[in-house]
Specification:
The chain has about 160 residues and is an alpha/beta fold. It has helices at about 25-35, 45-50, 80-85, 100-105, and strands at about 1-10, 15, 40-45, 60-65, 75, 95, 110-115, 125, 135-145, 155-160.
Length: about 160
């Protein structure tokens, strides 16, 4: 199974200056991300990798780059299709960003794990591509309120491609 996992604000913002617009202030989202991706494969662009700063433990980390790179603990490939070919059929793989990789992956995946952060942030430089909701349905949603470990309320949605 190959899916997208994304956190975005109410306006679709996913990035500001190489980080998430809300920073690292959503422990529930980070825990959900870890639970979903541990033991699987994470596929990301080079900018997303730089923002994380290290390979994510207990996952196969694939970084997409048009430039030849050598990053310890990471498989570097030059295309999303090469990444999908490397991941065995039936194995869990998650496209985790950035915007260009999401855009390329959208036609090829059938599930999205989405966190919607209850806010609209400013000085944004990266957005998640718009979804045609005629093609997707929310099959699961949970709400997590603001608390001491989460600066913003969130909705965790699982979307499935219709007919997929």
């Amino acid at each position: 199974m190959t899916a997208i996992i994304v956190a975005r604000d109410l306006g679709g913002a996913i990035g500001r200056n190489g980080d998430m617009p809300w920073g690292r202030q959503l422990k529930a989202d980070l825990e959900r991300f870890k639970t979903l991706t541990t033991g699987g494969t994470v596929i990301m662009g080079h900018s997303t990798y730089r923002s994380i700063g290290r390979p994510l433990p207990n996952r196969l980390n694939i970084v997409l780059s048009r430039q030849p790179l050598s990053i310890p603990g990471v498989v570097v490939l030059n295309s999303l299709s090469a990444a999908f070919m490397l991941v065995g059929e039936g194995e869990a793989a998650f496209v985790i960003g950035g915007a260009q990789v999401y855009l390329e992956a959208l036609p090829m995946i059938s599930r999205i794990y989405e966190t919607i952060v209850d806010g609209v942030f400013t000085e944004i430089d990266t957005w998640f591509p718009s979804l045609d909701m005629n093609e997707w349905e929310i099959i699961e949603t949970t709400y997590h309120g603001r608390d001491a470990n989460n600066a913003y309320a969130t909705h965790f949605n699982t979307l499935q491609r219709k007919g997929g």
